[in-house]
Write a structure and sequence with these properties.
Blueprint lengths: L1 E10 L2 E6 L6 E4 L2 H16 L4 E7 L21
């Protein structure tokens, strides 16, 4: 089993993740769940390993939640 520390940074609307031990492992996603899935996919492709222990490193001031788009549709009243 491979053990990786994954550094997470915000870049505009995306989270960018890179493994500290393996710089070739780099991916992006919109959520932490997507990042984990993407990193596992990269590990599978590069090393043919289906099991990896990941430790996510996120700075305290890094926003990781997704913002839902507010609806701009106006309600109209029936006359």
């Amino acid at each position: 089993m491979r053990y990786l520390h994954i550094q997470i940074q915000r870049d505009s609307n995306w989270l960018v993740a890179q493994a500290l031990e393996e710089p070739a492992i780099i991916t992006q996603g919109r959520s932490l769940d997507e990042i984990v899935t993407n990193v596992r996919d990269v590990v599978q492709l590069l090393f043919n390993e289906s099991d990896a222990q990941l430790e996510l490193l996120v700075k305290a001031d890094t926003p990781v939640g997704t913002k839902k788009a507010r609806s701009r549709r106006r309600r109209t009243r029936a006359a």
